Task: structure prediction
Amino acid sequence: MESANINMSSSNSNPYLIVVGKKLRSLKKKLEKIVKIEVHKLTGKDLEEEQLILLANKQGIEKSITDLEALKIQLEEVAKQLEEEEAKKFPIPPTEEVCIETDQNFGTLHSTASQYDSSVVDSSTEMFEDPKLLAV
Result:
């Protein structure tokens, strides 16, 4: 399941996979249309010239779908390898707590990526709102 998620993220960002995916989707729609035409043909309905041409191209469309699906798998593998190589080049450091010391008016600010000490922020904003302190 995890590899499927990686492949999905690759296919969402890789322009080659996007193009192949669009072409596959288009060919699959044509194949669905051909199947519907075959059903009409089996029920004895007369087919138009365009429908007959589509029926004649069924094997070519099926071959194209098979080829593009194989190509897409190979491109997904290459995209996954490239993502892994990029991740090795630029590793994301673990989140650490940051401590910044300031002057006496502000105290010490302790912060992480996801949270902060709201009392420090509240006291600093009060200082800016106090007209006596602004007059300095």
Q: What stands out?
A: Helices lie at 2-13, 15-42, 49-56, 58-89, 118-129, 131-134. The CA atoms of residues 84 and 90 lie 10 Å apart. Strands lie at 98-101, 108-111.
